[in-house]
Amino acid sequence: MAAPEVTHLPNLPNDVEGLRQSIRDAVVRVVGEDPRQATERDWMEALAFAIRERMVERRLLTRRQFADEDVKRVYYLSMEYLIGRMLEANLRNMGILEPARQAMADLGVNLDTILDLEDDAALGNGGLGRLAACILESLATQGYPGYGYGIRYEFGMFRQEFEPYHQVEHPDNWLRYGNPWEFPRSDRKYPIHFYGHVVEHHHPRGETRYTWENGEEVLAMAYDYPTAGYGRRNVNNLRLWAAKATRDFDLRYFNEGDYIRAVADKAESETISMVLYPNDATAIGKELRLKQEYFFVSASLQDILDRHLALGYNLDALPDKVAIQLNDTHPAIAVAELMRLLVDCHELSWDRAWDLARRTFAYTNHTLMPEALETWPVELMERVLPRHMGIIYQINHDFLEQVRHRYPGDNDRLARLSIIDEQNGRRVRMAHLAVVGSHRVNGVAALHTQLLQETLFEDFYNLWPERFVNVTNGVTPRLWMIQANPALTELLGQRIGNDWQYDLDRLRALEPYAHDADLQKAFLDVKRANKVRLANLVRERTGVELNPDVMFDVQIKRIHEYKRQLLKLLHVVDLYRRIRAGEDVAPRVVLFGGKAAPGYARAKGIIQVINEVADIVNHDPAVGDRLKCVFFPNYEVSSASIIIPAADVSEQISTAGFEASGTGNMKLALNGALTIGTLDGANIEIRDAVGEESIFIFGMTADEVVEHRRNGPNPEAILAQQPNLAAAVEMIESGFFTCDDPGTHGDLGRYLRHEDPFFVIADYAAYTEACERADTLYADRTAWAEAAILNVARMGYFSIDRTVRDYANQIWDIIPEPVAPSRTNGAA
Ligand code: GPW
Q1: Which atom of ligand 1 is nearest the CA belonging to 662?
Q2: Measured between alpha carbons, how far is 61 from 818 in angstroms, rounded to an integer?
Q3: Which of 63, 99, 301, 673 is most exposed, with the fewest beta carbons within 10 Å of its own?
Q4: pLDDT band at 824; cut points 50, 70, 90
């Protein structure tokens, strides 16, 4: 037992006076500046340091308690965490936002100015990465022992600029001022092996053993980000890995005197964690990507096993003490890596290891789209990860034996189920590896899980129906309501108290007041104030002036053909043409936001044409306030939290069957926007929750889309029957909006007339009809307010806290462990 002096934790004060002292000291001791000369950025850094020392203290208390209580832990493995800014979130979740505001004011600094200086931590592309960030926040808030593992990319999601219409990508150098939130752990390093070859060692009695020899090694070094729960003392940890060269590199060429080559090689080996691939829902297929995946998976599993053993458990207890969630197939190589660690390094028998691995892993699927499904050429896998290729063959062999036994003679089924795709030049199907190696597989919305069972994983579902479960996505109300929408938060507090902050279902208490005229007025006032706030930001970023009394119609998400930004754009062009023709149309502001993957030409073309249309529409004096179109540049988490509370209408118009869930749909509806949407992803569950009166559903269902495709779609025939739509398409292809590059819009016309792979043309009439229903309701302010209030009141189900409880109960088998107000420390 260590002396009390050694086990003591500092227990820093959280009142205004205590904070002020910490901040003032940090300017000198950490930033190294004279408080008399400190800049705003110096104060920001000092404040961050004052918070982080309080966070780490609670982190240690949390860890002590988890160790004392022998808890089961969950580890979330994700290539992406789309966190956004951390300062305000950490202040709020630590419960010191208001004292810190006061302390800063005492020091002569305005907190809001400081908050705006911070760069987003954008270590993700979109929905998948943001979901991971929400899940970590909820794990901490609910007191679950849950940890994130990922990559500390030096460069996150690129910064988007328009020059002037097309997207240009700039590197996101988010670490250029250093990062006060991270704790570099140079004592936590693991070797990661690539290339080389495998040597077999035959034993007369017992199993053949394998060693992986030669090749290259790089080190994975841990950087820890404490993650605070809201309204609790629990602080969990997100551990991100950075690549560091081994000492090997120092020795390799220095002896031969090739100093420059040695340093260059060293730098090259550290590129593994340099940059996030900016592709959303598309497999990348590059060797460096495979190395990134293996790099962070191997480091995380080595760390997990080290902790497990250090806590005194034996390996047979692994599934009882550890759950590992694979966020899509990006970390699916973990199945083979855990087998390697257990069999080759810890010398377990194959069968014992397999039983442990399968009971430990679970896999979340986030898409059905074939281009997003990762498969690696066998030849590449063999070269980069030779031992893993051997392990995958063994897993596949055992698995197919089982299938043969169950379905004798069914060779087609064997080929369909095999982890190796023999059709397309031999590739490893990572989704199959993940399903075979997990005890649970989940989709992220009811429709998505159903389609997984009926299509992509049909054969697996027939084999193991009990393995498949649904866990519908959710969003954290701390960021997406309390932080993003303080005005509505305040109003809710006045009307129904603050319990909803911990239990979002309690928003239902608002229902009885939906037709209360005072509440309706207050609700509309809040929305208008949020629209003014957004209009100010839009003016600053784009120069476009928006009228806050007009409907704000918002489509914010990655640019993808299946998400159908073109459907919204056709509507804009249609309205514009009709306004010019003297027709009276309901006024609206249409706001787009989102990035295109740099190599996705069609998506970049969509951005360009939207910008070109916007430029013409916004400068046409015949239009005035009746139509404005804005492409908000560099849409990211921090701008989302200004845009979402200001939306009247939420566009969720993907072709049915393609959006696994969506989570923007949830954030917007929670903030009182009414959804115009297809019966896709979680839109269906949102409709079931909010009721038909608070949502505008339109278009083909997933079944009808399949049927429509089978019948051979004919967009030209539809255009011939719809003069408004035809006129809009003609206006675009005629070059009316062409500003930059003549001819590009002709190509877009051909695309819509002859390809239209996501049925924009076929759904257009139904879509505009839904928009008109929204216009009619919007014109009746009382009816709109009532529908919007009911919408908010009924969104409780879409809290990430419910999502996380579903994972905890159905998949992880873990329970909350709230940290008791100071035990070990004797603090208040
Ligand atoms: F393709 N999603 C995403 F499934 O944001 F891997 N990026 C991705 O690479 C993939 C999925 C992947 C999204 C889904 O498109 C969206 O529908 C879902 O709400 C979100 O993941 C979170 O589940």
Answers
A1: 19
A2: 11
A3: 63
A4: very low
User: Is the CB of residue 353 less than 8 Å from the CB of residue 343?
Assistant: yes
Q: Which amino acid is at 600?
A: Y
For residue 276, report the distance from its CA to the centre of ligand 1, in Å. Answer: 16
Give the residue, by CA position, lying nearest to ligand 1 atom 22: 128
From CA 81, how far away is CA 135, in angstroms rounded? 10
Q: Cα(799) to centroid of ligand 1, in Å? A: 18
Contacts of 105 (CB under 8 A, 6+ apart): 111
Query: In the structure, which protein residues have their CB atom closer than 6 angstroms to any atom of ligand 1?
Result: 125-128, 131, 280-281, 328, 366-367, 372, 444, 473, 659-663, 681
Residue 330 CA: nearest ligand 1 atom is 6
Known catalytic membership, residue 170:
no
Contact 456, 359 (CB under 8 A): no
User: What SS3 state is found at 380?
Assistant: helix
How far, in Å, is the centroid of ligand 1 from the Cα of 130? 10
**ipTM, 2 dp:** 0.98
- How far is it, in rounded angstroms, from Cα 166 to Cα 610? 9
Domain boundaries, the chain: 70-85+120-472, 494-798
Residue 314 class from Cβ within 10 Å (0-12 exposed, 13-18 middle, 19+ buried)?
exposed
Among the atoms of ligand 1, which is closest to the Cα of residue 369?
Answer: 1
Catalytic annotation present for 367: no
Pairing of strands 322-327, 235-245: unpaired
Q: Where would I find the H helices in 582-636?
A: 601-618
Stated as kind and residue range, the H or E segment containing 459 is helix 458-463
Residue carrying structure tokens 């022992």? 145
- Render pLDDT for 87-129 as a digit per residue (tens, 0 to 9): 999 999 999 999 999 999 999 999 999 999 999 999 999 999 9
Residues 575-603, buried b or exposed e (16+ Cβ, 10 A)?
bbbbbeeeeeebbbbbbbbbbbbeebebb
Give the three-state DSSP class for 563: coil
Using the structure block, give the residue that is written with the tokens 């924009």: 760
What angle is formed at CA 480 by the lines to CA 479 and CA 484, rounded to 5 degrees? 80
Tell the CATH superfamily of the 494-798 domain.
Glycogen Phosphorylase B; (3.40.50.2000)
Homologous superfamily (CATH) of 70-85+120-472 is Glycogen Phosphorylase B; (3.40.50.2000)
Asked about 563 being catalytic, the answer comes back as: yes
Which of 135, 364, 365, 366 best tests ligand 1's pocket when mutated (most atoms within 8 Å of CB)?
Answer: 366
Cα 449 to averaged position of ligand 1 atoms, centre (Å): 13
- Residue 545, helix vs strand vs coil: coil
Question: pLDDT digit string (tens) for 525-535?
Answer: 999 999 999 99
Write the residue with the smallest CA distance to atom 6 of ligand 1.
Answer: 281
- Let me know: does 145 contact 72? Beta carbons within 8 Å: yes
d(CA 435, CA 354): 13
Coil, helix or strand at residue 503: coil
595 labelled catalytic: no
Residue found by looking up tokens 């991100």 in the block: 240
Ligand 1 atom closest to residue 448's alpha carbon, by position in its atom list: 17
558 is catalytic: yes
Residues whose CB falls within 8 Å of the CB of residue 292, separated by 6 or more in sequence, listed in order: 79, 151, 272, 273, 277
d(CA 171, CA 274): 11
Task: Give the residue, out of 80, 81, 157, 280, with the most ligand 1 atoms within 8 A of its beta carbon, to mutate for a pocket test.
Answer: 280
Residue 7: what pLDDT? 84
Distances (CA, A) of 540 to 41, 536, 695, 751, 779: 22, 6, 32, 35, 29
Does residue 330 have an active-site annotation? no
pLDDT, position 828? 35
Catalytic member of 663, 675, 678, 803: 663
pLDDT single digits (tens) 652-681: 999 999 999 999 999 999 999 999 999 999
Short-list 20, 25, 54, 89, CA closest to 825 = 54
